[in-house]
Predict the 3D structure of the following.
Amino acid sequence: MDGTILVADDDRTIRTVLSQALTRAGCKVRATGSVETLWRWIEEGEGDVVISDVNMPDGDGLDLLPKINRKRPDLPVIIVSAQNTVMTAIRASELGAHDYLPKPFDLKELLAKVSKALSQTGAAPVQTDANAPNDIPLVGSSPLMQDVYRLLARVINTDLSVLITGKSGTGKDLLAHTLHDLGLRQNNDFVTISASTASIDRIDGVLLGGFEDQGIERASANATIYLDEIGEMSDEAQLHLLDMLRNSEVQERNYRMVSSTRQSLEDLINQGAFREDLFYRLNVVSILLPRLRDRVGDIPLLARHFLQNAAATGLPLKTISNKGLELMRNAPWFGNVRELENFINRISVLYAEDEISAEHVAENLDSGRKTISEDAIPENGKLSTAVEWHIKRYFDLHGDILPPPGLYNRILREVEMPLIALSLSATRGNQIKTAELLGINRNTLRKKIKELDIVVTRSKKMM
């Protein structure tokens, strides 16, 4: 690399490390802990790239970005910050930062961004909305969530179609609302279509109107259309939605499409269960929300957030002991953030103490494990009892909110998969015998094998 890098950070150690690394990479470096000094260097024409912290003793690095863009619009600025929130990433992007990295950052990654910045010119800033909310429901500072924030910051002020992927309970609905509430269309409608139950009338009514008598209101022009769990949409509805997206009248109304799925649409395409042409229309930008057990470092932040939410409803504000938080970090959280929120709400109500102890946390976590061990495999061995337990747990994970529509088909699919797979195994892959065993038509069996993506292995005949 060849160029002069201006480094502004009030942490002397960070300035030293960056100066040494950039010098070894072939750059000249000027470092300061002052916003005022940084601005003086910029005014004097110094530097080819700026690396700036946000909070410094004499000012805010982000507040300097509009001045830099007016004075030297081709000067790339890389923001680094310990304020690892989605709003920091969005604000940096809106004010014209070339890139953003949360602290602690990977030095190799930063050097790669500097190299890229040296080879490019700076982009003009996007005007930020002074009334944009500072408190949004996305919480977390883990590396995986920082990836989400960076992607969100880049697409929030565009009209690109976004596909949000993630397991149940990871916060897909929250992210969809955030895209709308902080984006260019925040003053227009946000309309949800539950894909699993979406009828042709529902799609037509929202996109084109004409079904007010059925309680289906037409979305206003420039609205955000949120397709919830798009992977569960029927074949017929998929084809009709695709036709609608090609419709000139729908295109003139300039809707923004945001979709979510807990399933792999690529797998569904391979199974013939989802249209590839529709996938490419909806998946312009993909954002993956990680599972909670993949970002356990965020659990203390999330717990504090949910405790504050509980206090806002009238409960006393409580804390959780460090040992209690450690127990929570080691819990599986199959229901992800939603399950954690329900857990926090439950222990907030159950215990009167200001600090929730490790014993209280363990008691509730253990009671959940005890329920699994005692109820999931009941003494009477009835399948119906095990199914009842799983369905009850599914409702419990959603708390006071009903699960997404389409529960009947989802439960049947969960039961059909092992039933057909094990029956095929018992008949050594003989589909005629399997159909007879199950009491269904052979064509029906073939259709189910394809729908459920069951691998059929045919054993050799026994002599």
In short: The first strand starts at residue 4 and ends at 8. The chain has four domains: 4-118, 159-290, 293-397, 407-451. The chain is about 50% helix and 10% strand. The chain has a mean pLDDT of 83.
